Amino acid sequence: MAGTARIRPSTRLSTTGMAVPPTKGNAPGRLPVLGHAIPLRRRPLEFLAALPAHGDLVEIRLGPQRAYLACHPELVRQVLLDPRTYDKGGPLFDKVRPLVGNGLFTSAWAEHRLQRRLVQPAFHSSRTASYAAVMCEEIESMLDSWEEGRDIDLGAALHALTVRVTTRTLFSTTIGGRAVADVQHCLPVILRGIYRRMTSPVGLLERLPTPENRRFEEARRRLRAVIDETIQGCRRSGAENGDLLSILVGARDEESGEGFTDEDIRDQVMTLLIAGTETTASVLAWALHLLSRHPEVEKQLHDEADRILAGRLPAFADLPALDYARRAVTETLRLYPPAWLLSRTATVRTELAGEQLKPGAIVLYSPYVLGRNPDLFPDPGRFDPDRWLPERAASVPHGAMVPFGAGSRKCIGDAFGLAEATLALAAISTRWQLRPVPGTTIRPKPEAALGTGPLCMLPQPRRFGAGAGRTNP
Ligand code: HEM
Fold first, then answer.
1. 281: domain range?
2. Would 103 disulfide with which of 8, 267, 295, 362, CB 3.0-4.6 Å?
3. Ligand 1 pocket, 416 CB below 6 A?
């Protein structure tokens, strides 16, 4: 049946959900000493996306170290739903922790449970309406700054949008505008620096006093100072003003009565800024790029915007009706998931797909590889938001679509990110049609997030309501 995923017979799922029997394989092209370091560095997406053909669990060598890519959705679930056995940890996290602190994203299982209980209320669905109001204001001011025929550096515009939204929802009244400007300035420098440090095999270059390293240290120092200042301001005022920061400051665990220290809060704020900005900005950039190359999809999005919004900009209350925009975001997440490769470390001896893993073994999962697997998504290269119509989505195997992860480490900001991207897409569709600047070629840039690289587009005002004759803006 068209639109139904095919799972290889050897790995068809039993009623218990366990693969029978999963296959193991080795990634081809391994070199002595280097292992698969060269293809992983030079063309990681192509290299990884070819691995499901070699098995459900495929061994890769990162230099001398073994790592295993879980290619079958059931194995991905097995790993993600057992966070005690497959924890955050290992060499990558050891590098990232000193840079971003021990927040939700990096903390180990034992600390994570309390942290998550304390942060979760800040992401309760009852908060989304007030966050969405900030999103809508910022989206409107971005759209107001665009001019017909003047090309936009969309990457920079969307990054500024998501940084402003996340910063304003974190620090609504505390120190206001200055924090937003500082974060906007520092965050890109910090993100670039973190990615370089994560991928540097030796870690020596980062210690030299080069201008780039000095900029990185200065941005980190400045951002920490801004965050510390806002935490102190928030503690002094004692007010619960509904922003994320005051929720973190006031958080108490019901069981133990424990709360966060200032240092804990700083780590959480850093984590939210890092995890919540580049991810949403890059999915939006990809969505706009894809729409500009798929007029039939773009038309459906425009039709929906006209039908639901009739020329006005969307608000929180419109979200449930913006079905097509949401499906377009979901389909973009399948093709270009910002978090394209993630890792876990085995904490005990265990077995996965028949492979005996020792403590410290690295297990990887890649929403990108899963999303491109023709056994899971028929015609996987096709941008088809209607895959996510309920009747078709029901045939997608559990564990195949995990752009936000799964289990207790699932993205805490999934609803936030989806709301922001959906509102932005619907708002842009109401006012503008974006066209690629002639001659631009976009190639995925797999860095900290899966970016588009430089993305310049030309905005053209959109007419809505056939024959209504109104031109926006
Ligand atoms: C489209 C946008 C986003 C995508 C694709 C995304 C993706 C992800 C993924 C895949 C994970 C799980 C990582 C793992 O399994 O190791 C994650 C975790 C996380 N994300 Fe997101 N994210 C997005 C937006 C956001 C936003 C808007 C925020 C906050 C404002 C956020 C905050 C976090 C945090 C704090 C974690 C760690 C959760 C935990 O371990 O408890 N993310 N995200």
1. 113-303+418-471
2. 267
3. yes
